[in-house]
Amino acid sequence: MKKILYKYQIAFLLGIVSLTSCKKDFVNPNAPTTDQVFSSARGLVGVNLGAQRTYSLGGASVVYGLTTANGFTTNEVILMNAGNVAEYQFSRGGTAVDATNTVLANIWTNSNKVIYDANSVITAAEALNDKAYASGLIAHASILKALSIGSMSMLWEKVPAGIGANVQFIDRTAGFAAAITTIDNALAKISANAISANYTADAVPGLDYVNTLNALKARYLLFSGKYAEAITAANLVDLTKKSTFNYDAVSTNPVFTTATATNNVYQVIDSTLGLPAALAPTAGDGRIAFYTSINTTVAPRFRINGFFNATTTGVPVYLPSEMTLIKAEAYARTNNLVSALTELNKVITKTAAADPFKVGAGLAASTASTSAAILDEVYKNRCIELYMSGLKLEDMRRFGRPNTERKRNFFPYPFKERDGNPNTPADPSF
């Protein structure tokens, strides 16, 4: 299966190179044309695979960039070598993080590339006669598109309104709305024509489409302050299922390969997971041992563990427990404190054995009784439960945490965008 998909991806890329690499074309007679790729159902599977690799594979991927930018900015990780210039900028924070930062440029460029590819797949899939196969293609592309829009909307104050030259910018809240619209379109396609077994047989494994679409919808609705709708979406997610970007010995986990294995870029901070003393993990919290390991011989003592501990470890697109925490927060913000505490305690008391990913605190239930106290507990548990997920900076702003706890609020726009687009907004001061 995987070999077939790689064949389609490589053929597609070769076809593109033959069209765009230089004035004198050297066409590969064995490669399909762009029209052939985008008119073929299995060709579109290959394009989706290529987009997923752009998003999730390698040190230039959005997965690596989002984890890294968030990790340093929110004090989840510490720098190991100042020679890593982009990471060094993040470690210093403030104005040290500038428009030359290559990690930010990679997030920006590759997110936009994924959006472009996803749009192409969605448009082409709409024209297919096999609507049940098309539903799978659209679902996969929509997940990647929503993640890309959402990632940019978490890091920048404004995001491109589309793809193209001199594109206008929209507020990041409109970015979340665009991601939700993309998700709703995919869910509607699946509702009208359930994903076929033929598509499932061709698709790259790992992503649980319907659960992921609803999970991302719940996430972005929460970020948009639409609490009742976020609860509704979160309730549609099956908490026993997993959805992951998978890796193997050749296509490796990007954070493990770049940072964990080398011990030369960054490591986790310590058992506080970057939280202030008042919110630090409770002694005996099982999640500390999940997300960190101890090295007794080589500094630093605390090492990356969790979802970045081996070459082949899959990275969750979302954790099922994120849905429970979304509901806890949404209930607390709408003054349904009984339900908020109930949902919160599901996460606090959950054992590793009861979690699909084996993430479990295994602690006694909270007795928080006020909205403020429950929200503090929700924030604390999001920071621990979802450690190194790339979500903490968004959480810090939403929960009103002081600027002293983070190194930036939003990031500058990469020079490659500013130099080519006169509509690029002014950079934030912090």
**Quaternary assembly:** single chain
Number of extended strands: 8
Average predicted local confidence, pLDDT: 93
For the sheet with most strands, the description reads:
2 strands, antiparallel
Within the largest sheet, what's the order of strands? 1-5
Explain the layout of strands and helices.
Layout lengths: L1 H19 L13 H6 L1 H16 L5 H12 L3 E3 L5 H8 L9 H25 L4 H25 L2 E3 L8 E3 H21 L4 H6 L6 H15 L3 H9 L8 E2 L8 H7 L5 E3 L17 H6 E3 L7 E3 L10 E2 L3 H14 L3 H13 L21 H15 L6 H7 L16 H4 L12
Antiparallel strand pairs: 1-5, 2-3, 4-8, 6-7
Structure notes:
By secondary structure, the chain is mainly α. Helices cover 53% and strands 5% of the residues. The protein has 18 helices and 8 strands. It has a two-stranded antiparallel ribbon with strand order 1-5. Strands 2-3 form a two-stranded antiparallel sheet. A hairpin with a 7-residue loop joins strand 6 (292-294) and strand 7 (302-304). Helix 7 (131-155) packs parallel to helix 10 and helix 10 (209-223) runs parallel beside helix 14. The longest helix has 25 residues, at 102-126. It is globular and about 60 Å long. The termini are far apart. The relative contact order is 0.12.
Summarize this, please?
With 430 residues, the protein is mainly alpha-helical.
Feature tags:
mainly alpha; two-stranded antiparallel ribbon; 430 residues
